[in-house]
Amino acid sequence: MCKHSVALVSVAAASSPITFLMMSERPIPPLDAESDCYRKALAFNNLTLSYIARGAPLDQLLDRIASGFSCHYPQRALAIFLFDPETQRMRVGAAPRMTPQFLAEVCALPVPDPDTPQFWHSFTALGERHQLCLLEILPLRSFAGAVAGILAVCAQTRALADPAHLEPDYREAVGAAVSMAMLAIERALVPVHTRVEREAPGVADERMALAIEGSGTGIWDRNAVTGEMYYSRGWKAILGYEDWELSSHLEDAYQRIHPEDLPYVQETIRQHFASQSDTYQVEHRIRCRDGSYKWISSRGKVVARDATGNALRMIGTTTDITEVKQLTEKLAKSSRMLDYLTSEIPGMVFQYRMPPGSQGFFTYVSEGARETYGLTPQQLLENPSLIDSMIHPEDLPMFEAARQAVLDGGLHWMLEFRVIPPGQGVRWLRGQARPRRLEDGTTLWHGFVSDISQSKAFELELQELALTDHLTQLPNRRSFMQRLQEEYSRVQRGMIEGAAVLMCDLDHFKRINDSLGHAVGDQVLSHFAALLKGQLRKSDAVGRLGGEEFAVILSRANLQSAAEFALRLQTSFASHPLLHEGGEVEVTISIGIALMQADSSGPEQVLRASDDALYRAKEKGRNRFEFAPFTGP
Q: Could you give the 3-state DSSP secondary structure of residue 178?
């Protein structure tokens, strides 16, 4: 993505000129990417974009954007106004620090057409009358080019309006606010049927959210840098809260956890943040809105880390297991009462005995066996080995090892595994129990097995979302680097002789955005991504690294085959240009090629070498490819 600076433009308003800011093409000075300020801003923006992707309410998104800006710049206030074409008036989208009088007059201002000098003069004159030191009045344009609203920033004093105070990080923040506000507005305005059609090839966020709500499972999203939490409507409903209730502060989340369970939860999170566990999984009590406590089971995973391995973002699901806990405590009651109670539970409750030196057997199985294993309780009581025969072959060693660990003295059994019920497809189950050793050496299990196929599907969709570029539907940089590391390992182990790594960049892409607009630029990127994907073999890999840069891994390729691929790609792109408004959008590509061999220093060095070759191709006139001379140690 191209970065822009903010240039001062003077526009006459009423009797005196007023200065405000517009976006220009001049690159801003580089920011300190290692600073806490930059990392917090990046984390805030990433989390805001994830909320936009999930379809959070527009008013909440705009208020988050405006409030976040004002927290970072306390001496400046940001306001967002939305244009209503039916009433031909502006309405307040978010203005947490503007005066009610000013907002009322803005909303009363006639706006036949917001994309005219007359409206801008009227707005700036109104700001002058209220003694506002306006810094920016920026149009919020839709992808179609229409003005959907405006974003305004004002300062507390005239001194802050001086260009000397407009530091690069402030300009970057304004640009980010404009982009996020417009994305939020666009998503809110897109009709539902159009949105579904657009999302069908990728991750259908709304469909996934509805499925989560219907399953009684809640989803949460934690910003590990700021501590900010996002809860789905279903998560809040588990505790009895309405959608607009509950704060996003981590401290409030910890206060809801039962005091006896809090150290265990915090230690489990710490271990997962420190990469000491593959997933985060806990069961604990939590306080509801009415003051009562529920038992919940939460499972999550860090989906983003920085270059040093520090956790940035963690996503997970929460399930109410209160009934399971209560029923587990009542397993000693009569069989009739137990049958009645467990028939209401979506899972299998069981008691299992394993005498020393002999095969184990079930002494109790609830009706939930039909839903989990596709078997009747009587079938399992008569032949418990039926379960082992249904376990997925890849999971059977893990299942047997977990069972043996309990026999060797383990205090808790919790396992997720796949089964293949008779005549059905693969199903994910979660089993948990607290085995007890009897005086005669028998191990007695009281446990519960539930179907978590839906939760697993949600996790896979979340992982796909975290590893896919939304615009092109290609793997993103994180996903590509993982594949590059895997290919390098294969080369090092001698599984393949070598591979070629290509860096591709669209020439003069900025001109497309400037002359035809970012919407057309996005179409060009998607068009190129489709052509590029069509040239690959199944063994190859591709990813969008950012902006107009793409990378390719050609497995088992040498310089000649890599050059043939590069030429074929350039020819295909040139002969199949994007059509726009009856004309062709002509774009060329430059390519850098590097070989990855057994003596290569590492995957990053190979990628850097291909990037250097790409730079030489740019220097030599573009629309060509160049080779990296050497990538060894």
A: helix
